[in-house]
UniProtKB/TrEMBL annotation:
Organism whose genome encodes this protein: Leptothoe kymatousa TAU-MAC 1615
Native organism taxonomy: Bacteria, Bacillati, Cyanobacteriota, Cyanophyceae, Nodosilineales
Localization annotation: Cytoplasm
Keyword Glycoprotein in annotation: no
Substrates-to-products reaction catalysed: L-citrulline + L-aspartate + ATP = 2-(N(omega)-L-arginino)succinate + AMP + diphosphate + H(+)
Name the UniProt record assigns to this protein: Argininosuccinate synthase
């Protein structure tokens, strides 16, 4: 790999990405570093992060508010796909990576950089997501990953940074590795690395413990149009506000916690804690609305598509031909997925208790066992004979 002159670095303000700045210059021979901090609704003030990068000697410190795009172009398509990796994890962290990669590539092209960089280690999924997404968007850009190569402990990384004038405020270090955005939080490391250990309450921030949740259920209604959530309790909301309000509502009732052993792409298992209140509620509601508005064979076939879709996103293949093809299929199915889902939030559960749609395929006159029954019961006998004919012939040939 040739030497890079100008690099755009994905920047979080943490120790690793801050140390990447002098490391890129002194070990990789990079002349100019531009940092890019992405606001994905993590609730953190990014102004100080911008100043921190400038103090570390970067050519330019960029901050981009990508929150609305994150929801409309990444979260909402995942909801339409009912995307749950290993049928559990709603991809809250994974969905952010292709968006950050896209912003890195755009910045590199704008500022004439010949490489982009990130602070991912060689053990996680994010390195794959960044590297592959960048290659899918601009295969001519080099990708540099200092933390994958330097082999330093956290203490050694801090000492390296201090050699070049960087300062790291003394604070109580969290034993956990935490990633947060508007869709939720992921927590790992520390005592969580023992899968037998119950997660202490301190690891949670978006959801209440069941003992602290309200003693009365709360009913909410979510409105969908073309498979996209557009309103809550009869109020039309913009995408960011809808997710924000639903996170609070569901989190107050202890909804949205996941504790799972996850199969990482790099071949190891990891223990992950997730908090994704709004996302889990929205996927459950959307899937139920599909059961009301889609034909049986479409619904059943789409389940396999959803699994493949989830694996592609988790494995960093957002910008891939198969993902684009699945997007087209999913969008085709969503035109009539409109209506309202009613849920009861109570003690950690979001239970669907009602659904209605102008496009409902449910017909009460056919489903009822009452006096209004319009189903032709006599037709069933002939149907059953034809349907069972292959089984009858098979059985006769065995005798």
């Amino acid at each position: 790999m040739g030497r890079a002159e100008r690099v755009v670095l994905a920047y979080s303000g943490g120790v690793d990405t801050t140390v990447c700045i002098p490391y890129l210059k002194n070990e990789f021979g990079v002349k100019e570093v531009i940092t890019l901090a992405a606001d994905l609704g993590q609730g953190e003030e990014l102004g100080p992060i911008q100043e921190k990068a400038l103090a570390a000697g970067v050519m330019e410190s960029l901050v981009e508010d990508l929150t609305e795009t994150f929801i409309t172009d990444y979260a909402f398509p995942a909801i339409q796909a009912n995307a749950l990796y290993e049928n559990r994890y709603p991809l809250s962290t994974a969905l952010a990576r292709p968006l950050i990669a896209k912003a890195l590539v755009a910045a590199a092209e704008k500022y004439g950089a010949d490489a982009v960089a990130h602070g991912c280690t060689g053990k996680g999924n994010d390195q794959v997501r960044f590297d592959v997404a960048i290659a899918g968007l601009n295969p001519n850009l080099k990708v540099l990953a200092p933390a994958r190569e330097w082999g330093m402990s956290r203490e050694e990384a801090i000492a390296y940074g201090e050699k070049f004038g960087l300062t790291f405020p003394v604070k109580k270090s969290s034993p956990y590795s935490i990633d947060r955005n508007l869709l939720g939080r992921s927590v790992e490391a520390g005592i969580l690395e023992n899968p037998w250990t119950e997660p202490p309450e301190e690891v949670y921030a978006l959801t209440k413990a069941i003992k602290d949740t309200p003693d009365e259920p709360e009913y909410i209604e979510i409105n969908f149009e073309a498979g996209i959530p557009v309103g809550l309790n009869g109020n039309s909301l913009d995408p960011v506000e809808l997710i924000t309000q639903l996170n609070t509502l569901a989190g107050t009732h202890g909804i949205g916690r996941l504790d799972m052993i996850e199969n990482r792409l790099v071949g190891i298992k990891s223990r992950e804690i997730y908090e994704t209140p709004a996302l889990l509620v929205l996927i459950a509601a959307h899937r139920d609305l599909e059961s009301l508005t889609l034909n049986a064979n479409v619904t059943q076939y789409k389940r396999g598509i959803e699994q493949t879709y989830s694996e592609l996103v988790y494995n960093g293949l957002w910008f891939s031909p198969l993902k684009a093809a699945l997007d087209a299929f999913i969008q085709q199915t969503q035109a009539r997925v409109a209506g309202t889902i009613r849920l009861k939030l109570f003690k950690g559960n979001a239970t669907i208790v009602g659904r209605t749609s102008p496009n409902a395929l449910y017909t009460e006159e056919l489903a009822t066992y009452g006096a209004d029954d319009k189903f032709d019961h006599k037709a069933a006998e002939g149907f059953i004979y034809v349907w069972g004919l292959p089984t009858r012939i098979w059985s006769e040939k065995l005798r």
